[in-house]
Amino acid sequence: MLAEAGDLYRGELFANDCPEWAVEYQEEYRAKALEALNRAAACATRRGDYRTAVERYRRALALDPINEEVAANLGRALHQLGDRAGLLRLRATLAEALRRELDDPEAEPQPEAQAVFDMLSPILKLAAVRPNSEWEADSRA
Predict the structure, then answer these.
(1) Residue 131 DSSP code
(2) What is the spatial distance between Cα 40 and Cα 118, in angstroms, rounded to a whole number?
(3) Phi, psi for 23 (deg, rounded to 5)
């Protein structure tokens, strides 16, 4: 039922030309959809259905791209699927979203979210320290 509730959300009310009176409704419906998707993903995780959890967490993150709690939960589900490439993309996408939303080129996830990424995949720590050009040079050698 939660999954269906999240599926019903099709985007923001008056997305292109929102009257002032509708802003509160936009935020309320978006928050409800985010909560439904989060709860559906958590239920899928408890059942061990990590593919569904990933799908739901990704939809939730699309609604709130800088939600570090959702990103960390998505990271855990990706880890359960053994998707290291997905973890790397998630980490990079989250950092980019934070930089864009906060208008800060140095913005990084909070220590709590970063700790989840570091714990889940030691390669993420290396990727954060080692520039892409070094990885590429190693792969050509």
Answers:
(1) -
(2) 26
(3) -60, -45
Residue with tokens 């959890």: 53
**How far is 84 from 100, CA to CA, in rounded Å?**
24
Give the amino acid at 60: A
What pTM was estimated for this model as a whole? 0.75
Cα–Cα distance measured from residue 75 to residue 72, given in angstroms and rounded to the nearest whole number: 5
Residue 24: count of CB within 10 angstroms of its CB = 9
- The tens digit of pLDDT for each residue in 9-62 reads 455 555 667 677 767 778 888 899 999 999 999 999 999 999 999 999 999 999
Short-list 25, 32, 43, CA closest to 5: 32
Q: What is the CATH number of the domain that holds 33?
A: 1.25.40.10
Q: pLDDT: is 72 or 139 the higher one?
A: 72
Range of the domain at 101: 2-140
Count of domains forming the chain: 1
The Cα–Cα gap between 31 and 39 comes to: 12
Query: Of 93, 95, 83, 94, whose CA–CA distance to 120 is shortest?
Result: 83
The token duo for 56 is 């739901």
